[in-house]
Amino acid sequence: MSFVMVDVESDGPIPGDYSMVCFGAVIVEPTLSKTFYGQLKPISEQWVPEALAVSGFSRDDVLGFEEPAMVMQAFADWITENSKGRPFFISDNNGFDWQFINWYFHHFLGNNPFGYTSSNLGSLYKGLVKDTFTNFKHLRKTAHTHHPVDDARGNAEALLLMKEQGLKISLK
């Protein structure tokens, strides 16, 4: 099983009504060298300026991005080429990131290579240290820049450190 750390930036709170602007993914393994980055053209006329601003792009910028179906197919192909065994989705905020990736895969490709499950990195850390009032973010080495590959990489670094701290996880 390959853990795929994912981070999403969007222009609003939910898929369908709003659009995924870009996302990044990293296969969680010691080198963290297998990465994916996609920028997607909006699927909706609706957008929240404050949400879009987090990504660093303007509305004019995103209107020039790639068609979502092409990006999602490229991501599915990347997952197939780079994961060993079943790919497993993990993110810092899987309630947010998962909803966009899952919706886009099903809407544009008819299925999701990750299946129907995901994991939340923060919850794993809380369980590892047995403290629901703590977070893992101090374990990141890569700065959290809101570029989704940077953010996914930092989260993958944290997961690798959690493994060193005793989290039982198979990272192949």
TrEMBL record:
InterPro entries: RNaseH-like_sf, RNaseH_sf. It comes from the Bacteria. GO terms for molecular function: nucleic acid binding. This is Exonuclease. It comes from Acaryochloris marina (strain MBIC 11017).
